[in-house]
Description:
The complex is a heterodimer of chains A (about 325) and B (about 325).
Chain A: H1 2-30, H2 33-37, H3 44-54, H4 60-72, H5 86-121, H6 126-140, H7 143-157, E1 170-172, E2 175-177, H8 182-215, H9 218-225, H10 230-267, H11 273-282, H12 286-314
Helix pairs in contact in A: 1-12, 5-6, 5-8, 5-10, 5-12, 6-8, 7-8, 7-10, 8-10, 9-10, 10-11, 10-12, 11-12
Chain B: E1 7-18, E2 21-33, E3 38-42, H1 49-57, E4 64-73, E5 76-77, H2 83-89, E6 94-97, H3 101-104, H4 111-120, H5 127-140, H6 146-149, H7 159-171, E7 177-181, H8 189-206, E8 209-214, H9 217-221, E9 226-231, E10 234-240, H10 241-246, H11 251-258, E11 307-310, E12 313-315, H12 322-325
Parallel strand pairs in B: 3-8, 3-9, 6-7, 7-8
Antiparallel strand pairs in B: 1-2, 1-4, 4-5, 9-10, 10-12, 11-12
Helix pairs in contact in B: 4-5, 5-7, 7-8
The complex binds adenosine-5'-diphosphate (ADP), iron/sulfur cluster and magnesium ion.
Amino acid sequence: MLVFIIRRLLQSLLALAVMSLLVFVGVYLIGDPVAILASPDATEVDREQIARALGLDRPLWEQYAVFVGEALRGNFGKSFVFGQPAMGLIFERMGATVELALVATVVSILVGLPLGIYAGLRPDGIAGRSIMAGSILGFSLPTFWVGLMLIMIFAVQLGLLPASGRGQVGSFLGLHSSLFTLNGIVHLILPATTLALVRAATTIRLARAGVREVLHMDYVKFARAKGLPERRVIGVHVLKNIMIPIVTVTGLEIGSVIAFAVVTETIYAWPGMGKLLIDSIVNLDRPVVVAYLIVVLFILVMLNLIVDILYSVLDPRVRLGEQKG
Amino acid sequence: MSETPTLEVRNLQTHFFTREGVLKAVDDVSFTVRAGEIMGLVGESGSGKTVTGFSVLGLVDPPGRIVGGSILFKGEDLAHAGEERLRALRGSRIAMIFQDPMMTLNPVLRVDTQMTEAILAHEQVSERAARARAAAALAMVGIASPEERLLAYPHQFSGGMRQRVAIAIAMLHRPDLIIADEPTTALDVTIQGQILYEVQKLCRETGTALVWVTHDLTVVAGLADTVSVMYAGKIVEQGRVDDVLDRPLHPYTNGLLGSVPSRNRRGQKLRQIPGMTPSLLRLPQGCAFRSRCPRADQACTEMPALAELAPGHLARCVHPHLETAGA
Ligand SMILES: Nc1ncnc2c1ncn2[C@@H]1O[C@H](COP(=O)(O)OP(=O)(O)O)[C@@H](O)[C@H]1O
Ligand code: SF4
Ligand SMILES: [Mg+2]
């Protein structure tokens, strides 16, 4: 188990080194942050001063070396734009993104799992087919288009829901979340639905495929041969088996939900780290982009670990030490 | 003999309505098993033995359906019983043991869960009482330290042990009928013998009627009271075990006996029945065994009826081996 965790961490450190290097080279190739930061009428001397202050006057490899040295001491640099520690900026906005991603994930399971199971039990019925058609739509419609349509219908036409912003944040037991105020929840509905759509579509397909496969297993027939009521056959024998892939995929995909949140946050002006990332890329605010990558990678690594542990809980045949990779 | 048989299957027809056509997996099958009696249901793979068993339990999967005949369980017709009635009988009065013990137990549920749920599905007892009964059932099939083993998952058991668990589950409610579908085929020979012996003992002790499905006639020899031989969805020979094994009437049974080393033929070279079981979708006209039968001729192009050729000994053949029957 420990070996397993250490191996995972080393892999992620390597990934981090490669990705941060890419960001350094990328920003260097795209443009000059100084040009964005300096006012249009700044003199050459002003510019040099800014460059020196940000360490941008040194050769690229030296900048990277300085970054690595500082990062190893836990210092990830200050935002070029805000002059504040980049990590701090990310953390300020992380809560909003994580909240959005988690709510979207929960919604996608609550909606996708029952629909998928139903479609798996009645694959040839009208309802089963409609659910599948819906999930294909959910996959193929672009997030921004769905977001805009939802805004058009529910915010503009019907005027039922707010179209942008995070609303009021309440706190409960030291946690801050918009789930604790009605106004906050109302603001969450549209962005969470938008973000949940693709995940729900995936959950539907996984659940449907899982049910169809598991239903033909001998152990399901044996469960029926024991005289178990159908609700126990489906609700325990089938469900427990299909949950293995669903939990795995959902857990791993929370990372990509956070990444997809970039689009959703932009549409709904949701003050999360996705929106911060976009702003920072536009401003060539390298420290913030790198800090974002570190945080997202960290989240992914943690999710991977949690999923592996959950997996071994759900599937007694799996022992962590035996895993490859 | 006048009491109602535990199971009386009459002219059962179970067909699968597949895209390629109607597959008559079970086509006019009749047999009777009385309390405390053991019937061997014998036939090559694909002859319809498993589907027959599932039909009795009302567990035929679509596109399959019972389309004809009756299944009288202690006089009650299960072919026309409602789902709730069937559920109440399944596991409690009629139990089934499956062929592949590696696939029968749910891999993600502990053995105790899978045993106690089987009790609680039919009886309102406390969890604790159910547990105690599950442990006792494991002990009965020869599993050591049952309390401990209850906490294990199926993958922690060997194939033989898993089959014992399945048998213990089947015995939980002391059913009137057990259908054992090739329960030892997937196991190695020594364990086969043990399990065979134990199931037989348990059934004799409890007066349970047993249908033992197998493709191996030798297994039936020391075990069963009666034998039904199936070929391509039909019973081709039926009778008391000694009659059928010692004086087989049907060329197929004869072939089966030739292809296994039996107690009377030990030392003889194994003989295989030439050819393969024909696809049930493309059966030859008349006797389905025609394409492989050494005795086949023009008369066999018409399906022979199952006829009583000697007292209590039935066969479906135009040219039966009457010369050896000696009756
Ligand atoms: N679910 C199913 N769909 C279509 N055909 C089936 C199905 N189950 C069984 N069959 C067919 O029924 C026939 C008898 O099968 P089975 O009873 O399993 O044979 P046995 O147990 O004697 O080996 C086979 O030809 C098999 O292909
Ligand atoms: S009916 Fe004819 S083909 Fe069929 S088993 Fe008898 S002899 Fe052979
Ligand atoms: Mg079979």
